[in-house]
Amino acid sequence: MNYRHSFHAGNFADLVKHALVLWLLKDRQARGPVTVLDTHAGAGLYDLSGDAQRSREAEAGVARLMTAEARPPLIEALAAEVAALNPEGGVRFYPGSPVLTARALRAEDSYRGFELNPPVEALLTEALAAWPNATGRAGDGYEEAVRAARGVKAPLVLIDPPFERPDDYVRSAETAAAVVRADPTACVAIWTPLKDLETFDGFIRRLEQAGLSRVLVAEARLRPLNNPMKMNGCAMTVVNAPSGAEAAAAEICGWTVQALGDAGARAEVWRAG
């Protein structure tokens, strides 16, 4: 699966990922200064009139979010961020995790996003120019996040690869384990697509075999997992999940499947291990 960020920007999976990232960041900020490390940052900000218009996934995601009524608080928080980037109305611009995070940083917080693709890294740097404590850097995010985690205290680490390489599931699990070995107080949030249970179960087994604890799995299944050629849902797996994360994930995934899912859609939030 090649999950190119610009092509899928603003889809249902982005809503799940970014609403939970916002909550995790706010929770972390309540405990002190926060360093956010983002392994696959992407361009940072997306113009939905570009690649995303061809996929039309934003129409079934963020566009419906912004017209929905009775949004629960954690979904409303994401909608407010989207609205702030579109002051003239509509939904042309959608924030990736770099811009979303940068907008929420305090003076004592910082963000480091890593990107391997040089043209995309240049876009990332441009998108973050307004925030001096948010930086985009060239590099292999798996390696860079582990290296950076050794030099900061209690980071929030986002692992969100495009799944264009056959080893992305393996490297995601290995990176999460290495980050927690470097700093047992780190919180690691890993986004994965849900196409079939066999692949996802293998990923969870790797986390369990690494001895990771307090692993929360939040699934939003928009359709039954019976067609491995389609992204039928997505999951956010949080290592060292803080208190309250289960309720937050249930609110976010529950709204997503109810508002955007097909018949048979369901949300599942559970503990691994």
From TrEMBL:
Enzyme class: transferase
Site entry: Interaction with substrate rRNA: 3
Keyword Membrane recorded: no
Reactions catalysed: adenosine(2030) in 23S rRNA + S-adenosyl-L-methionine = N(6)-methyladenosine(2030) in 23S rRNA + S-adenosyl-L-homocysteine + H(+)
Active-site residue list: 160
Gene3D superfamilies cross-referenced by the UniProt entry: Vaccinia Virus protein VP39 (3.40.50.150)
Positions annotated to bind S-adenosyl-L-methionine: 18, 40, 97, 115, 140-141, 160
InterPro entries tied to this protein: RlmJ (IPR007473), SAM-dependent_MTases_sf (IPR029063)
Enzyme Commission number(s): 2.1.1.266
Keywords: Methyltransferase, RNA-binding, rRNA processing, S-adenosyl-L-methionine, Transferase
Assembly behavior: Monomer.
Protein family per UniProt: Belongs to the RlmJ family.
General function of this protein: Specifically methylates the adenine in position 2030 of 23S rRNA.
Protein name, per record: Ribosomal RNA large subunit methyltransferase J
Organism: Brevundimonas guildfordensis
Gene, per the UniProt record: rlmJ
